[in-house]
Amino acid sequence: MVMVGSKESGNEATWSNVETSEAKEGGGLMTVNGKAREEKTVNGFHTVTDEDDFDPSAPPPFKIAEIRAAIPKHCWVKDPLRSLSYVIRDILVVFGLAAAAVRFDNWVVWPFYWIAQGTMFWALFVLGHDCGHGSFSDNPKLNNVFGHLLHSFILVPYHGWRISHRTHHQNHGHVENDESWVPLSEKLYKTLHVSTKFLRFKVPFPLFAYPFYLWSRSPGKKGSHFNPNSGLFLPSERRYVLTSTMCWCIMIALLLCASIVVGPVQLLKVYGVPYLVFVMWLDIVTYLHHHGHEQKLPWYRGKEWSYLRGGLTTVDRDYGWFNNIHHDIGTHVIHHLFPQIPHYHLIEATEAAKLVLGKYYREPKKSGPFPFHLFRYLVRSIRQDHFVSDIGDIVFYQTDAKLSGFSPSKMD
């Protein structure tokens, strides 16, 4: 794999603007980085086909309004009854799994329970995530009630996380302003203690990062999702954060009471281990939606960043049998561009948007029943995606060969 520099780094790679010939009915020619491409119009929407290598950092020849127009109108409609049906389904499965595990209380059964229940905790998180985006329903009160119920149950401060996640969506793909799995600048990376680097870039430690992120965010960023006075939040948002922190504390109190009633070991088996599996799911999925593609994807700064270009750096993933269980969270590109679309319309919306996106949409590798293939992408990315250059408005991940234990020139 070749490491590519930013346009201001002095490396051979350059990032020129798109030059398009005069618009013609049915399409035209354009050049990106001096390479010819063909621009076509399909059903009134621009598509791009490459005659040579595709440069994902090149400004797209379409606008976000064209993507929006390609998506069927009914995909934007939110059905609260349908959303509630998913909540009821998932809650019934959660309590059914717990009842079955306690009933059998067998060490052959417990590991299967932990994986299944942790996966269902993750499904509950995704529904709460939809509440936070407002894609659950058009009723903010309904969204907030169920968002608190779902997220508090799995120890997530609903409003605190909702607000920081909104920041992530508004600044996706921006080196400094993004919020989730943000790339470290080279200068910041060099200041990290070796133990911090080890915990962040050595599997399996990054898979348990989420609780620490909630408490103290990412390296180089200050604040807590539980503190209403954190710089994460505006003064007008503090009362919402305080409400969510109180709900989180109530859940902690309920768990402490449960440990007194059933014993700490039983609580660990029924709730604690599934919670860790849920955290692993969350970290794996959210990481792979922004990292680990076969082709290095750009991060932006300054004038090169736009909402559209940042959103196009996200990656869809196929999770096999788990797609339906965790509510098609793998259809991430369109979700990032249009978070108001309900999860049950994302697949259809994505198919419609492909006509516009062309090569800017990266088709996910098809999964078997279990998405074991994703671990290869995960491990490879964690081993080699360490920091980005301090300069340049278009940058790509670089590798600390000492940390990885091998030379970047040997990467395949």
Automatic annotation (TrEMBL):
The chain crosses the membrane at residues 110-127, 240-262. It is found in: Membrane. Keywords: Membrane, Oxidoreductase, Transmembrane, Transmembrane helix. Pfam families: DUF3474, FA_desaturase. Residues 107-361 form the Fatty acid desaturase domain. InterPro entries: FA_desaturase_dom, FAS_N, Fatty_acid_desaturase. It comes from the Eukaryota. This is Omega-3 fatty acid desaturase. The lineage of its organism: Eukaryota, Viridiplantae, Streptophyta, Embryophyta, Tracheophyta.
